[in-house]
């Protein structure tokens, strides 16, 4: 969708007197998005970049093995090493037949088609793919497969694993030694289930926190990011001279995303960094010095562009800077089908990426056509064999350093199957310490710490939700569709507070709406963002969705009753939250703390004498906005953070803006009975051209053949009910500015529609329509006693003919015959109750 570009005037300085804290650390100069000339745009000059030396020594035994393998490998085997397939779309037999060099597990993949598979199933799958890869019964050389996973804040695909705070929270700790401990604990837990490679750490330097991946970056300050990179890589891999990692408790790492994914214009994921080469080098390239010095084994190329040229096809950067100037000796892997975005490429064919310097194609569901296309071109001599051999050599060199050739099947390796290490007390203690150190206190009017012996009320919709406090990339890709039962051994913020208060002789009550049975001595209100990942988290402005701001009124009500209020914010980025700051007596940013919510209680709840048990250490890893756009002023500067020794200051009320109409979620197309801003809800008859726009309820359409009324869903009158007296009719959402959902289609996103059915139609179809395209699939729409969230893969609509880059009616529900149903919500997402088959 097109992004909304709203700006607000900077508030008068006088209105902010006394409430804009001074910086306590030197903040980086903000990057200005500048226009660039088109001539030679996006072509780097490696000579102006610093030169590094990759410190990983070449092992003579490995080099001899590589030379021997290359001399015996067929072209089919060589091409197979360059391809990585997702677990969703490949079998061990496929891997053997096509000699695939690597597999990955995407955010919504898992063994046996179940992303909630238990840990033992992961290890069994690792064995099955390994054994297929080394099977030489067909005369092949049998190179072991390597399995990559997005263990970006712990081994976060696995139920029961320790979930550490996301990187933005770790950025607040200013503790590289703790980061190394987190890396080491994560590596051990990865090894339990048989994987060898994590796509971490993210070393982005976010400059616009509207970006949906901003929480994956440690900070907007390149020096702070750089200070963490080496520590995390050492924790995961060991030192740069470390060999035979699989004989130890280590895995290989991957810094991502090369380069400037955090510098795109307007913070658009997979967008374009419209910055100078000097800014590219000095801000976004800065963390790679530490990565090279630490001997990072792999680097992932970014989806994004620089000056209009896609990184995955940018030879001047991938080869000229990374491999030649920086002497990087590992291999480059692309991101999820990112090669398909390179100019002149498709998901099925992109030799340009290999020529540019990509060594391994992450082709999760397109691995077979990519393999066949590369093989065909290689046999014709259209791709230089020297480049193919170089890519294969790099991959085999990393596999040799890992110790993969000698390690045997995953279940025979050290740490495999030691399920007691998943979420072990030692690892949870590290995570709890990370939570304590990451918390940033923005306000304290003398109410913290809370005395443990009294009555505590815990309110807010985020208080008892471990998935929410963990954020995206947690068990599922988006971190949605899961509940506390999927986090054995973990602690929600509520349960951590309850334990601490009861241990001190007090009592605690959980009440999301803030009501209480007995007047509390203090209240903690937990609120903030809900989980998201990648572009699903892109924002137009730095504000919460309006439906997430209800806890503001809870705070106001409690404070009006004279109850001290402590606000705890769950968030992946700084946001405009002036109303919550005004309505609370203390305010703590918890970021996305992960599985150890008790770390919050450690700081909020005092000892028996009411004194702090721990002090606040966290400092802001970036500026905090004054309004909805950081460009309009800073409320709290980079490095700000109070502790229990900070002098008390009077609080001057902050100006409050009405952000309700501006903070909409671009993924939400219909909710609360109305379409999204600038969208229309229509009822149309087949072939007649008759069309009725529905703006109120009740209403009639198609000459009285369709009656539209209001039904309750989530809120009063939050759904629209359509009673149809036969014939063909369609309910549509139209956006006259065509919607482009191509990247969502690439990422296995679903079109979700929440429906309740009283009378099932004879036939139903779901589809999408553009100016010159349409795509529909049949839809079984049975009678239901309650609302059901149906999901249709966007790929299905594309395969049926819809041009997903240009849709004016992205949602069409067509029925034939009498029908009676209500629509509660239409949005994009991954959390369907039922998947609609692509029939």
The helix tally amounts to 21
- Strand portion: 15-25%
Strand runs, count: 34
Mean pLDDT: 92
Q: State Rg.
A: 27 Å
Q: Structural class from helices and strands?
A: alpha/beta
Spans of 5+ residues with little confidence (pLDDT < 50)?
A: 1-37
Ends distance: 27 Å
Helix content: 10-25%
**Biggest sheet layout:** 9 strands, mixed
Question: Which geometry do the CA atoms define?
Answer: globular
Descriptive overview:
By secondary structure, the chain is of the alpha/beta class. Helices cover 25% and strands 20% of the residues. It has 21 helices and 34 strands. The longest helix is centred in the middle third of the chain and has 18 residues, at 385-402. The radius of gyration is 27 Å and the shape is globular. The two termini are 27 Å apart.
Structure described in brief:
The chain is α/β, with parallel strands linked by helices. The protein has 21 helices and 34 strands.
Write the layout of secondary structure elements.
Layout: H1 60-72, H2 75-81, E1 83-86, H3 92-98, E2 102-105, H4 119-133, E3 146-149, H5 167-171, H6 176-192, E4 197-198, H7 222-237, E5 254-258, E6 272-273, H8 277-284, H9 287-293, E7 298-301, E8 305-306, E9 309-310, H10 315-325, E10 331-333, H11 351-356, E11 361-362, H12 367-380, H13 385-402, H14 425-438, E12 440-444, E13 455-459, H15 466-470, H16 493-503, E14 507-510, E15 522-528, H17 550-560, E16 565-570, H18 578-583, E17 586-591, H19 598-604, E18 624-625, E19 634-636, E20 668-671, E21 674-675, E22 679-685, E23 691-693, E24 699-701, E25 706-713, E26 715-724, E27 728-735, H20 742-746, E28 750-759, E29 763-770, E30 773-778, E31 788-793, H21 794-799, E32 809-816, E33 819-829, E34 834-835
Helix pairs in contact: 1-13, 2-12, 3-4, 6-7, 6-14, 7-9, 14-19, 16-19
